[in-house]
Every structure is written in structure tokens, then in C-alpha cells.
TrEMBL record:
GO annotation, biological process: nucleotide metabolic process
Domain of life: Eukaryota
Similarity comment: Belongs to the HINT family.
Database matches in InterPro entries: HINT, Histidine_triad_CS, Histidine_triad_HIT, HIT-like, HIT-like_sf
Cofactor(s) essential for the protein: Mg(2+)
Chain positions of motif Histidine triad motif: 96-100
Any single Pfam family the record assigns to this protein: HIT
SUPFAM superfamilies assigned: HIT-like
GO MF annotation terms: hydrolase activity; nucleotide binding
List of catalytic residues: 98 (tele-amp-histidine intermediate)
Catalyzed reactions per annotation: adenosine 5'-phosphoramidate + H2O = NH4(+) + AMP
The protein's name in its UniProt record: Adenosine 5'-monophosphoramidase HNT1
Domain called HIT: residue spans: 8-111
Length: 136
């Protein structure tokens, strides 16, 4: 399984750095975030090291969402966000794929998100659709 000696999350998986482990299997590790946005904020990470989602083989991603769902249920979160960032400009800080399960108990706690929508040019949208669909 891919691992990086300098990666903080790989060190957490190996037990070299302590964590508040909530779940572990052959492919996945989940633990409480030490800088939470709200009570119950947790991370779910594949044990396979890769910086971005596209670096992780599909077979190492199969448990991620079921574990995130179990965390949401275990924390009692009614409203919550599942967040995964790829790259610095997309707000990724640790270069190991990780999914946040962030309870949103009220307007002040949890994840705050802006959603700057853009006007749509239907011809350009159709061309994009055809381009992406052909690669799927």
C-alpha cells in the first residue's frame, strides 16, 4: 500500500502520531479533526497515500462514503457537509486525500460556504457536456 514517510496522515495511520481514532479497516482510517469547525468534525482517509482524489485507486475509495455516513449517524448530525478538496487553490492543506464530515448544528458552527454561480451560455454548456460525456 502506498505511503509517504513525511505525510502527517500516513504517520497517524501508522500510530506514529496519536489520534482520536473512530474507525479503522484495511483501507480506511477515520478520526476526529483536532481543529474542528463544529462538535463531531471528523476526517475519513484512505490508507493508500495520494495527494488528490484522482491519485487513489478506486478499490481504496469504496468504504469512504459509508464510513462518513456512519460518522454522521454516530455524532447525531442532522445537517452536515461531506467535503473533499484537491489542490491548494481548492483549499487542500494536507497532501493526502481526506474527506471531512462536518456537522452543521446552526448557522454559526460548521462549514460556511459561498456559492458564486455564473450565468450559463447554453451552447457552451452543451459543448462541455459532449466533451465530458465522450470521456466517461
Amino acid at each position: 500500500m502506498a505511503s509517504s514517510p513525511a505525510c502527517i496522515f500516513c504517520k497517524i495511520i501508522k500510530g506514529e502520531i496519536p489520534s482520536f481514532k473512530l474507525f479503522e479497516s484495511d483501507k480506511v482510517f477515520a478520526f476526529l479533526d483536532i481543529q474542528p469547525l463544529s462538535r463531531g468534525h471528523a476526517l475519513v482517509i484512505p490508507k493508500f497515500h495520494g495527494a488528490k482524489l484522482t491519485d487513489i485507486p478506486d478499490e481504496h475509495l469504496t468504504e469512504i462514503l459509508p464510513v462518513a455516513k456512519k460518522l454522521a449517524e454516530a455524532t447525531g448530525a442532522v445537517d452536515f457537509n461531506i467535503l473533499q478538496n484537491n489542490g491548494r487553490i481548492a483549499h487542500q492543506v494536507v497532501d493526502h486525500v481526506h474527506f471531512h464530515m462536518i456537522p452543521k448544528p446552526n448557522e454559526a458552527e460548521g462549514l460556511g460556504v459561498g456559492w458564486p454561480t455564473q450565468a450559463t451560455d447554453m451552447d457552451k454548456l452543451k459543448a462541455l457536456y459532449e466533451e465530458v460525456k465522450a470521456k466517461m
